[in-house]
UniProtKB/TrEMBL annotation, chain B:
Residues 252-323 form the Beta-ketoacyl-[acyl-carrier-protein] synthase III C-terminal domain. Residues 117-190 form the Beta-ketoacyl-[acyl-carrier-protein] synthase III N-terminal domain. Keywords: Acyltransferase, Cytoplasm, Transferase. SUPFAM superfamilies: Thiolase-like. It holds the Pfam family ACP_syn_III. PANTHER family: 3-OXOACYL-[ACYL-CARRIER-PROTEIN] SYNTHASE 3, BETA-KETOACYL-[ACYL-CARRIER-PROTEIN] SYNTHASE III. It comes from Streptomyces carpinensis. InterPro entries: ACP_syn_III_C, ACP_syn_III_N, Thiolase-like. This is 3-oxoacyl-ACP synthase III family protein.
Length: 993, 339
């Protein structure tokens, strides 16, 4: 049989809220059985039922908002279904895939659960039936709801074979994967003790342990105790899991299901059928009984059950073997989980193979000698069993009261090749810093700011508990799994300790101000390429060291320049060589840095909506916009630099913190000095002979105007460099129309039909740089949300700020100075992700760091109890139950997406709107204050077609003046509460006219 | 099944915080930077405690867990794959539970043999010696860790002016750190074979060359030296013993001096290591040292050197490591060969 991999799992069992807690409970031999919680029933009312059980702490909590389920529906929903929804999300996350990414896939859902108690309890009398209860009480809906909420289109079914339900579900899921019905399957089961009825049945049948403890294979075994739980595994074909780099807990080699047939009564176990199902499973798995190291047995702890099971196992395993087959049963810890018993057993076995140690079986110390285990090739696990290295085979049994038996064979995950990746180069050269990965971005998301905070706390705790190390793998995993929800957090981190601090700090901060944007649009990014004067020795060297991506792109730019330059500009840049200020190198160096930074960002998924280059920066801008190819631009830049080198170095440039009048006045007296750049209303650059500039500088300083000599060798954009400009005019240039709008500092506006040819580059060099005008046009015409400065030092963002262009914009700089490393680049990506960008995350990490680690799964809201009382034979109507739950938090998803703050202010509600709100509250059970005008029926209020029909009825009875409205007429108006009210308003007016 | 050859799959290290250079240390101690440069020749070291306040920022277990996790990650192994853990240190966080068991917990390792070796500069080699025997006895993979922390023995806050020179030297000589290697039965991709291990205490009737004390309820107030070294004896004997160790390893393996491509010499201090190197009879070998940048980190040293060696070791190359623990004159070393 084709091997199936268990790639993810999640569970909640008594005394164990998750998989990690479950493992701890098993390893310490914990007892999770306790008294009946007050919310269920009063044991004194049922003296015939043992007053003990394995109860979940949080069987009644549900994050209805997360799944957009209306309060009324949540209250009517079978608690089994609610638990499964949480579990499914967390299990999928554990498998290393964001649940949202599987939407629309053929993922299958196979849920085992027995009975149908919720339906009996809530719909016992026809009078109490409602559509929500109807949908909420069917077992089939347990699987179907998962498929619905996650949008899975593969097979979706509930399995009821009594106590073997969930292992049979796993068997069916594996079959569906093998036949190609689905590529991923969720399989498992759930069991909640809603009433003492079944306990009474067990007591009547003599199956209930008087002491309320299930004692499998013990001399004291005298019956079962009931238990609760939910568990799901994520299954994939092994080849797919390996190909996708998913982590594997264990491999499902094969399984079998059969029936007792007409045995000694419908509820009596059948030794021969049990033996047959084990043998069939081994045969299908291609293993022999001597290979099986341990069996997680059904082990109900009833004398008859234990005896028959051991006899059946004995006839299979009493073969010559290296060591006896170890057996145990988790029922000693949790009780009998009925429909969920099989998944509790399977998860235990999978975790044991994963950790390579099998927990001891509780109550094993007084082994029942009648079972003759030693003579049957078996031994009861009285202490934990450390598994030997290499492949280990294990098996799991689960039998149903009605005679449906199942057995599954598991083995350890295939081990990855030893040391595939030698230490990344650089066992650090100096030894000053330990070798470490690149700076990554850790991402987290939640459906509300509060959810984000809750999950920040959980992740901080998890990361802090790990040994310190590089953050790259954690970051990469978080990018893969934790980015799908509307409220986003992102932070740059290199090291896990630093990451834990950042998470802790963020959780304590006001998230609404920093992290928790709710992006409903993508960021619109403009690239501003820095020009002359920003070059410095060793610029971007730390970034080059840190970022493989930047390395690649700077190398590319270097290779493009080298044939024309006859030297490596990269060497000049990175070595800290002061020649970077010489005319021959300064311009090619800046060009290379600009191109490499821009290409790095583009590779990360940051696509500019517009580009603007200041003077020389226009070359890299033109390359980024696709107007020049890299090679052509490299040739032109080197040509420009060479022309410059031949000019006398007698000119200079002066930056002046003033504009207009005072400058014009002084220029009149200095005819050789020109305005080289208009950078803002009070930012001007002058160009000309040094002596003349010095005179102007003195005069301005006397008027308390700040000036600064720019570190340039020539008077650019002035007559002194006109020769260079004229030579450029003669250059043939291969230019094409830009693919991205270019805001030209030559024209001070968006480039239209003008080609970026020789004449353009000549004028661009000779005429003033109209940065202020170009940026003004850019902001006005493309409405960017972010300005990114592309250069080795901040020049343009401060100018933009002073000119007032950046007031409502966020300025980001991926390489803001000599100290900038990969961190600033990562922070830029983090900021853009918070603002709605979905970066190309893999570009941020070296392949060796793109390794998935298991992160703590999503923490759901747990303060919201939807099942506060024993449902009883006559349940209280949902409207009355809901107010007993705690008041909802002010920020919840019922607030419509994309609604600015001010829109939430209540308007004067007209009578029609009020009637609509009343009807919604009545149908959905929402608190009135959450039914806002902007609330959307499907996304925010969790309405479905049944509720829409109910709503129509309620509205019609409240607003008779609307008259008869067909569903077809109504549907287009059913976007939000407001659109419906507007539509009905119109109807009222039409009818009145 | 018994095995002949065991392999080093990967190494990992942990050096806390930023390096403290001689200028910074000289300022804290109130001594001249030149004195450190000349006397010790160590340029920088890391401390897991704040030299200004003495506050302990990271424990030995923190450092060892980090180094161990890095080694596991580099080896592509998970905690369940590791079948034994050996940790060598002179400076455990507590006497019990051992730092070794604390580190096993941090690394998520359960139900496996965990050993702690009380040792000094030879601790890493002792760990290798024990580890190779465990692998030879049938285990498939083990984690070896060595580390030391100095906060109990150095106190920069105390007025350095009143310290005698031999005590002052300790403050510039030592540093904090941890290193780890994963030992496997299978060659893996790197196939760095551990060819030989020398581990011999040769201190019969010899006074200790290094002394580290500890105190408890009854004696914590006594004014005795907690850390002392017999520098004269060390300078005299360690170079000579090192030469003997090289000859012994070569003789055992049948290697000639020209066949050694890399040499990992003892890491007492930059200056001492240079003096020893002058005498070691391996003319064609490249030196792999770390002490100038890390200070003397005791049990971590050979692992820090291994971390530097592994990326440089080419197929067919051989390396020799030598260490002398002067506490009771333990001579130790090992030989590696990459297939």
């Amino acid at each position: 049989m084709e091997d199936i991999a268990i790639v993810g799992l999640d569970c909640a069992f008594p005394g164990a809220a998750g998989a990690e807690a479950y493992w701890d409970l098993l390893m310490r031999g914990g007892d999770a059985v306790g008294g009946v919680p007050a919310r269920r029933w009063d044991p004194d009312d049922f003296p015939a039922v043992p007053g003990a059980g394995g109860f979940l702490d949080d069987a009644d909590v549900f994050d209805a908002d997360f799944f957009s389920v209306s309060p009324r529906e949540a209250a009517a929903m079978d608690p089994h279904h609610r638990l499964l929804l949480h579990c499914a999300w967390r299990a999928l996350e554990d498998s290393g895939r964001p649940p949202g990414d599987l939407a629309g896939s053929d993922t299958g859902v196979f849920v085992g659960m027995m009975g149908g108690e919720w339906g009996r309890l809530t719909m016992g009398s026809p009078a109490s039936a409602t559509p929500q209860l109807g949908a909420g009480s069917s077992n089939g809906m347990a699987a179907n709801r998962i498929s619905y909420h996650f949008n899975f289109t593969g097979p979706s079914l509930a399995v009821d074979t009594a106590c073997s339900s969930s292992l049979v579900a796993v068997h069916l899921a594996a079959g569906a994967l093998r036949t190609g019905e689905c590529d991923t399957a969720l399989a498992g089961g759930v069991n909640v003790l809603l009433s003492p009825s079944l306990g009474l049945v067990y007591a009547q049948m003599g199956l209930a342990a008087p002491d309320g403890r299930c004692k499998p294979f013990s001399a004291d075994a005298d019956g079962i105790v009931r238990g609760e739980g939910v568990g799901l595994v994520v299954l994939r074909r092994l080849v797919d899991a390996v190909a996708d780099g998913q982590r594997i807990y264990a491999v499902l080699r094969g399984s079998a299901v059969n029936q007792d047939g007409r045995s000694n009564g419908v509820t009596a176990p059948n030794r021969w059928s049990q033996q047959a199902v084990v043998q069939a499973a081994y045969e299908r798995s291609g293993i022999t009984p001597d290979q099986v190291a341990f069996i997680e047995a059904h082990g109900t702890g009833t004398v008859l059950g234990d005896t028959i099971e051991c006899a059946a196992l004995g006839s299979v395993h009493a073969v010559p073997r290296p060591a006896p087959c170890a057996i145990g049963s988790v029922k000693g810890n949790l009780g009998h989980l009925e429909g969920a018993a099989g998944i509790a057993a399977l998860i235990k076995a999978a975790l044991a193979l994963h950790h390579r140690v099998v927990p001891a079986s509780r109550f094993a110390d007084r082994e029942n000698p009648q079972l003759k285990l030693a003579g049957r090739g078996m031994r009861l696990l009285k202490s934990p069993l450390r598994l030997p290295p290499g492949e280990t085979v294990a098996a799991v049994s689960s039998f149903g009261m009605g005679g449906t038996n199942s057995h599954a064979v598991l083995s350890t995950a295939p081990r990855a090749a030893l040391s595939a990746s030698p230490a990344p180069a650089g066992a650090s050269v100096t030894g000053a810093t330990p070798r470490s990965g690149e700076t990554g971005v850790f991402t987290l998301s939640g459906d509300t700011p509060e959810a984000l905070r809750r999950n920040l706390v959980a992740q901080a705790e998890d990361v802090a508990g790990r040994p310190r190390g590089d953050a790259a793998r954690l970051c990469w995993s978080s990018n893969r799994i934790k980015t799908g929800l509307p409220y986003r957090f992102a932070v740059a981190a290199r090291d896990s300790a630093e990451l834990a601090d950042a998470l802790r700090k963020a959780a304590a901060e006001d998230l609404s101000a920093t992290a928790a944007h709710r992006p409903w649009a993508r960021p619109v990014v403009a690239f501003l390429f820095t020009g002359q004067g920003s070059a410095h020795a060793g610029m971007t060297a730390p970034l080059y060291r840190d970022s493989p991506l930047y390395r690649r792109h700077l190398d590319e730019a270097d290779a493009a320049l080298a044939p024309y330059l006859g030297a490596s500009v990269r060497e000049v840049i990175l070595s800290g060589d002061e020649r970077v200020h010489e005319p021959a190198f300064a311009q090619p160096a800046l060009f290379a840095v600009g191109c490499a930074l821009a290409r790095t960002l583009v590779a990360l998924g940051v696509t500019p909506a517009a580009v603007l280059g200041h003077s020389l920066g226009e070359y890299a801008a033109a390359v980024t916009a696709g107007a020049l190819d890299l090679d052509e631009a490299a040739r032109l830049v080197v040509r420009r630099a060479a022309l410059l080198r031949d000019l006398p170095e007698d000119g200079g440039m002066l930056a002046v913190r003033a504009g207009g009048e005072p400058v014009a006045e002084l220029l009149a007296a200095e005819p050789e000095v020109r305005i080289a750049a208009v950078n803002g209303p009070s930012d001007t650059v002058l160009s000309g002979p040094r002596e003349a500039l010095s005179r102007i500088g003195q005069a301005l300083r006397a008027r308390n105007v700040d000036t600064r000599n720019l570190p340039v060798t020539h008077a650019f954009h002035a007559p002194q460099t006109a020769l260079m400009a004229e030579a450029l005019r003669e250059e043939p240039v291969r230019a094409t129309a830009p693919a991205v709008p270019v805001f030209s500092t030559r024209y001070g506006r968006m480039l239209r039909e003008e080609p970026m040819d020789g004449a353009y580059w000549a004028d661009q060099a000779a005429l003033p740089v109209l940065f202020d005008a170009a940026l003004g046009a850019l902001v006005a015409e493309t409405s960017p949300t972010h300005l990114l400065e592309i250069g080795p030092r901040p020049q343009l963002l401060p100018l933009a700020g002073r000119a007032g262009h950046a007031a409502a914009l966020e300025g980001l700089h991926p390489a803001p100075g000599p100290e900038a490393t990969g961190r600033e680049l990562a922070e830029t990506v983090a900021a853009l992700h918070r603002a709605g960008l979905d970066p190309v995350w893999e570009a941020l990490y070296a392949p060796g760091h793109r390794v998935m680690v298991r992160l703590r799964p999503y923490v759901f809201r747990s303060d919201h109890h939807f099942w506060d009382r024993r449902p009883g034979p006559a349940p209280a109507p949902a409207e009355q139950r809901y107010p007993e739950t705690r008041s909802p938090e002010p920020q919840s998803p019922a607030q419509p997406e994309g609604t600015p703050e001010h829109a939430r202010e209540p308007r004067e509600p007209g009578p029609v709107l009020a009637a609509v709100v009343d009807a919604v509250v009545e149908v959905g059970g929402h608190p009135r204050e959450r039914v806002l005008r902007e609330a959307r029926f499907y996304e925010d209020l969790g309405f479905d077609s049944v509720m829409i029909m109910q709503l129509k009825g309620r509205v019609e009875s409240r607003l008779p003046q609307v008259g008869e409205v067909s569903v077809q007429e109504l549907l287009p108006a059913l976007r939000s509460v407001g659109t419906l009210a507007d539509f009905l308003d119109d109807m009222v007016m039409v009818n009145a006219a | 099944m018994p095995r002949d050859t065991v392999y080093l799959a990967a190494a990992g290290t942990a050096l806390p915080g930023d390096p403290v250079d001689n200028a910074a240390l000289a300022k804290l101690l109130g001594v001249s930077e030149e004195w450190i440069d000349l006397f010790v020749g160590t340029r920088a070291r890391h401390f897991a405690w704040d030299p200004a306040t003495g506050e302990v920022l990271r424990t030995l277990a923190d450092l060892c867990a980090e180094a161990g996790a890095r080694a596991l990650e580099a080896a592509g192994l998970g905690p369940a794959d590791i079948e034994f853990l050996v940790l060598a240190t002179a400076t455990p966080d507590h006497l019990l539970p051992t730092t070794a068991t604390e580190v096993a917990d941090r690394l998520g390792m359960d139900h496996l043999p965990v050993y702690q070796l009380q040792a000094g500069c030879s601790g890493a080699v002792q760990a290798l010696d024990l580890g190779r025997r465990l692998v030879a006895g049938g285990h498939r993979a083990g984690l070896l860790i060595g580390g030391d922390v100095t906060h109990r023995f150095l106190a920069v806050r105390r007025s350095a002016a009143r310290m005698p020179t031999e005590e002052l030297v300790n403050h510039v000589l030592f540093g904090d750190g941890a290193g780890a290697v994963v030992l496997t039965a299978e060659p893996g991709e790197e196939a760095v074979a551990l060819r030989g291990v020398l581990n011999r205490c040769a201190g019969l009737r010899r006074p200790p060359g290094q002394f580290i004390d500890w105190s408890g309820l009854s004696d914590r107030d006594t004014e005795r030296r907690m850390l002392a070294e017999d520098y004269k004896a060390i300078e005299e004997h360690v170079p000579a013993i090192s030469v003997e160790i090289v000859w012994e390893l070569l003789g055992e393996l049948g290697w000639t001096v020209d066949e050694v491509d890399h040499i990992l010499p003892p890491q007492l201090s930059g200056r001492m290591t240079a003096r020893i190197m002058e005498r070691l009879p391996v003319p064609s070998a490249t030196e792999v040292s770390c002490v100038s940048e890390t200070g003397n980190t005791g049990n971590a040293l050979p692992f820090l050197q291994l971390d530097r060696l592994l990326p440089r070791l080419d197929r067919g190359q051989r390396a020799l490591a030598v260490t002398v623990e002067s506490s009771k004159w333990i001579r130790a070393g090992f030989a590696l060969e990459k297939a």
